[in-house]
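input
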Amino acid sequence: MSKILLLEKESKIIHQVAELMSNNGYDFTVIQQTSQLFSQLSIDNFDILLADLNALGAEYLNILRKIKSHPAFNAIDVVILTNGQSNEVLAMCLEAGTRDFISKPIRSLVMSVRIKSIINSRKYAEEFEAKRDLLENKTKNLTSISNELRRQKSDLQQVNKSIINSIQYARHIQAAILPSPEDIKKSLPDSFIFFKPRDIVSGDFYWFKEVGDKVVVAAIDCTGHGVPGAFLAVLGDSILSRIIHYHRILHADEILNEIHLSIQRTLRQNETRNYDGMDMALCVIDKKQKKLEFAGAHNPLIFVKNGELQQIKGDKVAVGGAQWDWENGPRVFKKQEIDFSDGEDLYIYMFSDGYQDQFGGKNLKKFQRKRFRQLLLDIHSLPMETQKKQLEDTLVNWIDEGNQEQVDDILVIGVKL
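output
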């Protein structure tokens, strides 16, 4: 059972939070004086501290820093209850170790979702750390083997084959996580997915889920490729599944906002300064209302209607990484909508940057954005499987003409609505 400590002076807030904690089955303790804080923290191992910023008093920064620097308390997640404090104050709280903010007056649903998200991310972080430790141990073992192989060159070929087989097996695991083409075709019969990893496993991945009348589909490009990118891809798939399946968040902008916060919390990026993340294009298609919502992190949505190609740009930030922008405040993603209820065919395309950044051709240049968009316009009216074949053939010819190797993972999703 998760344990939560509340520091709050207002009886109305105390009653509201106590009722919420009881309904969710949390072990809940309340204090009203800052002087009680550290003695209470010493009594029990709390998972989350909900602290009213006004109740912390003028020494709020010193108190927050003391909590995060104390070996017995630094694992607790601190959530500040705010009441109109300035951006500068909130930024200082983040630097001091605060994990999240909840504004007053408190909305019970918002607090419930935030608390559940933190608790779930704590559990996932523990699992992630255990798996990472296991991977580090295996990596150390492989390094030791590698050193031994330098002294025993006759064994190099056999050991190399063993390593490749392990990664090949990882490819099967990653393939099992990806949505099945059959399920996608059932929901979106006029669609294709052109997916070409650079290495055995990929940092690009695609995601799909149908929930009622809505379909969520995304093209995602993680930091890096190969094994590091694949680890982030597994994390991204897990986070998306939790957001859609358990939290039932079905608006494009809210999904990206929650993915960003979940990556930041899971990887503890405010503490580690690890800013790995993902670029992505995500659509929520309402088949009943004939409307599409789009939100993007760096990556755009390309669509063709009545023979005209148009672009909706994504926000100029990734999901994951720093949450606070000193010029614009907290990172928030926006959505845009397309109405396709007029009966005219709508062709949409989502993709990573791998295709347009591929080197080739007789001049050994990148394929480039302009040429890629013209290719999509040229082929959009063809059957979907033919479009996929055209993309593949064009890419192969481009690489072969320049006698180049594939430089990045490649992913293109096309859907006709």
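quick obs: The domain at 3-115 is CATH 3.40.50.2300 (Rossmann fold).
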